[in-house]
Amino acid sequence: MIASVLEETPRAQPMVGRLWRQLRRVERLLLDHRAAAVARFGAVALETIDLPSLSAPQEMQPEQIRAGGALLWACELEQAGLPGFVDAMADLVLQGKFLLPISTAADKLMLYRRARTERFAPGERIAIYERVFGNEFKASWANLLKGLDVIARVGTTENLSAPTARVVAAAREVGMYLSQRTGGIVAFAANSIAQQVREALMVLRSPDLVQALGGGSVWQMIRLHAPMVLGRALQPEVHLDRAAAALRITGWLADAAAAIEAGMAHLPPPDAVEAAELWLASGDGA
To answer: Could you tell me the residue range of the domain that residue 190 belongs to?
Structure first.
């Protein structure tokens, strides 16, 4: 259902269309992680929530890096308003603090809320993000972004050997962190949250709910109503850009893991450099 809703309106909803493509990519990455877990631990991995890391100590593991990237994508999406906006709106409707016309909109919100015991609660999601992407990660990530930014700014006639070597060292630090510190429930959490994002989008694209919220795109509705629903203003576009950049940069780290781990000073691809610039354009280096 969600595919038909989102893919029918790519021009009217360019950001939602981009999110839908990212969501499908995240789901594929997490399926690859599950396949790698089965290859390493056997079929028991399909029934285990708290898996150990797929990599040996001091080894970069591509599927683990991609799973960490999927969770970082979800972390930025959380700050853009999904799925937290729908969680909070459903609670307010139930409490009678957010009135909707009697229609299928309220029904869909209540159906969404009834399934809350099967999902991570907002506070649980935040706790997972803070545990995985705390100060240690932020410092390493900021160093990588700054290194890529230097490469983006140097002239084509300048010697790139030194900045490239620094980027490779920073990339190894981030890749090793994601390989070693994103075990446990990270992949399970990323998969669960991605499913919740999918369900929240389905609710927000309900015609009755769109009408009740005054119309507009998903992000326009979130921006307009966030102060009342969440108690704070949101700027979704900033975090949507960062979510996209997170997938692109961690995708490069995973693809180049063997070369990065070996310390081979290859110039990072333009896509990774552009993604770093996209992240830094948000005004926050980490």
So the answer is: 2-133+186-249
Q: What are phi and psi of 184, to 5 degrees?
A: 65, -130
User: Does residue 241 fall inside a structural domain?
Assistant: yes
Position 260 in a domain: no
Let me know if residue 173 belongs to a domain.
Answer: no
Of 98, 62, 78, 43, the C-alpha closest to 175 is 62
pLDDT score for 99:
75
Work out how many domains the chain is built from and give that number.
1
User: Does the residue 211 lie in any domain?
Assistant: yes
pTM of the model: 0.87
Side-chain-facing half-sphere of 102: CA atoms under 13 Å? 0
Dist CA 81 CA 97 (whole Å): 19
pLDDT tens readout for residues 137-158: 999 999 999 999 999 988 656 7
Q: Which backbone phi and psi does 42 adopt, to 5 degrees?
A: 90, -175
Helix/strand/coil (H/E/C) assignment for every residue in 27-77:
HHHHHHHHHHHHHHHCHHHHHCCCECCCCCCCCCCHHHHHHHHHHHHHHHH
Helix orientation angle between 14-41 and 62-80, rounded to the nearest 10 degrees: 150
Angstrom distance (rounded) from CA 39 to CA 36: 5
pLDDT 10s digits, 218-268? 999 999 999 999 999 999 999 999 999 999 999 999 999 999 988 887 889
pLDDT along the chain (286 residues), means of 10: 34 67 92 70 54 67 92 97 95 84 76 87 95 95 97 80 94 94 80 93 89 89 94 94 96 95 88 96 70
